[in-house]
Every structure is written in structure tokens, then in C-alpha cells.
Write a structure and sequence with these properties.
The structure is a homodimer.
Chain A (H helix, E strand, L loop, with lengths): L7 E5 L5 H14 L4 E5 L8 H10 L7 E5 L10 H21 L4 E5 L1 H6 L5 H10 L5 E5 L5 H6 L2 E9 L15
Parallel strand pairs in A: 1-5, 1-6, 2-3, 2-4, 4-5
């Protein structure tokens, strides 16, 4: 009996750590020999610290791979809203193709739930991705305010809850830590 | 004006992702050029996926460094309780020395809060570490049931809350994902 059962995971909530824990999971999975793809739905352009480090990891192993692709246009503004809608559509198509490709053991759709929250994508489209996935593929979705139809479809849901934040006491966001 | 303000951070709660997000933060910080030390207070012996990947990262950069040290003895059993108490004491001393060394920008004391929960360390000893740190050092503590005196001393506290877990529906823990 094959014990691999693809988990559908969600990181949601108003706290820090949704994407950070996703990157940590990518690190664990890659270190354990899995093939890992991270598609970033909102972020684009800027190379963050974690991306920089993961790009270095991409080159290490001959046996398995880790890959990060930025599909977003960054901060969502009303002026370029249609461009963000189009980018989300393209990202969705890429996600669908990669999910069906059987090249990956874990696919992380980072911030895809924000695409729903901000009206770029329908939650039903994301539910479709969950339904078409090969049964052994692990899928992780991140973003605030996960809609109920996605929660219902997930195996493992973690809410990152803000208990206390330094902005509340007037400390500036710290490079390398908070961004 | 120097804008670096060392943050004291805590990942707590009954959900997944406390240590995983810590490793993700380590990745981000290292990728952003910070020097990062991870001391594991409970884990020992077994090389997990994330440790394996971070060990590969240790070799990449000539400019900054990332280092992981396992100071624990693994799963805490009653039979070897005193050995665990001793190991926690040693880990505490290592943490104190490294905090004062000024070699690091971020020190992660992974699972140190479990040491309190399981009676290996007093919370006051951990509070002392927070108090003696150089003002620019970022410190991250992880573990379930963080005591109030540590929450009060922290700048940024995130609770990882379990919303739904596959064990609840009888799916076995998945290698590379959950361990």
C-alpha cells in the first residue's frame, strides 16, 4: 500500500507567518527529497530574502528540485486592477498545468487566497484546482480570510492569529525579518 | 538614526507551523544578508528535511552565515527526565553565550517554550535571555503554551491555531510535509 496521501493545506488568519511557514514547509519538503514548486500569486518583481535563499537552493540538488515563480504584479491598486485580474488568470492556468504535470510532489500557491479576497479570482476556480489534482500531490494555499468552500475541501487548516504586533507599539518593520 | 530594532518574537499555539515558520523566517533573514543561528532545544539526533536543506545553505554564502545546532535529546520521556533537564541547562548556557557574542542578527530558540511546558527550564531563565540581549538582536522563541511573562516581554506574538487536521479524519502523517 502506498502511504502517500496528498494533503490539501491552508494557512490563513490575520497573523504573520502564513507565507513564511509555507517557505519553511518548502524547505522541509525539499530537504526530504520532494520536488517543490512555489507559485506566487500576488508578489512580483521584488526579490525577497526567502526567494534569494531558495534560488540558491535550486542549484544544490541533482536529485530533486525546488522552484519559485512570481506570477503577480505586486501591490494591488485600483488603477491597474484589470492587469491584476489578467495576471491572476495566467497564474491560475500555470497552476492548473503544473498540477496536472506530475512533475511535483508539493505545489504551494502562495497568496492565492488573497486573489479571491481582492476579487481577482473566484473561489470556485481554486476549488477546481483542488479537485483535479493527482491524489498524491500535496497542495498548500495561503492567504487571509479563506472562504468556507476552500476550508471544507482542505485536510489541514492552520490559522495564524495575531496576538501582538510591534506596529502597535510604534516599531518600524524590520528588514530581513518582516519583509 | 539606526533603524534596526531587535524584535522579540514568539510563535505559539496548538497548530502546525510554529517551527516551520521559524525556519521560513531563517531563510528570509539569511537571504536578506543577516547572520542567523538556530538552536533546537528539544530536537536532537534526527536530521529533518529542513535541517538537511539549511545545512546545504550553510555552505552557500561567503558573506553571511546560517547555522543550526541541535541541543536536545529528542522526545521527552520520564525515564530520562534528568538527562533532558541537563541538556536544557546546557542549551540555555549556549544560548546565553551566543546572544552576548554579537555574531548574530537573528537567533531562533526553537521549541524553547516546550522546555518550560515540560518543566525542564524556568520561564524566568528565558526572560533573562530576552533582557540581556543586545538591542539590535532579533530573537524568536517557539513552542506551545507560551507563559504570560514571555508574551508580555515580546514585541510580536503569533498564535498558530489548529482549525482542521488530517489525523481527525484518519490520514497518516506525511513524510516531508508533517515531519
Amino acid at each position: 500500500m502506498d502511504e502517500t496521501h496528498g494533503l490539501v493545506m491552508i494557512h490563513t488568519g490575520d497573523g504573520k507567518g502564513k507565507s513564511t511557514a509555507a517557505f519553511g514547509l518548502a524547505l522541509r519538503a525539499y530537504g526530504a527529497g520532494l520536488n517543490v514548486l512555489i507559485l506566487q500569486f500576488i508578489k512580483g518583481g521584488k526579490i525577497s530574502g526567502e526567494l534569494h535563499a531558495l534560488k540558491a537552493l535550486e542549484k544544490i540538488s541533482a536529485e530533486n528540485k525546488i522552484e519559485v515563480r512570481q506570477c503577480g504584479l505586486g501591490f494591488i491598486d485600483k488603477k491597474n486592477f484589470q492587469a491584476h485580474v489578467d495576471a491572476a488568470q495566467v497564474a491560475l492556468e500555470i497552476a492548473r498545468a503544473e498540477i496536472l504535470s506530475e512533475r511535483w510532489d508539493l505545489i504551494i500557491l502562495d497568496e492565492i487566497i488573497y486573489s479571491v479576497k481582492f476579487g481577482l479570482l473566484d473561489a470556485e476556480k481554486i476549488l477546481e484546482l483542488i479537485k483535479i489534482r493527482p491524489p498524491q500531490l500535496h497542495l498548500l494555499l495561503t492567504g487571509r480570510d479563506a472562504p468556507k468552500i476552500l476550508i471544507d475541501a482542505a485536510d489541514l487548516v492552520t490559522e495564524m492569529k495575531l496576538v501582538k504586533h510591534p506596529f502597535q507599539v510604534g516599531i518600524r518593520a524590520q528588514r530581513g525579518i518582516e519583509f
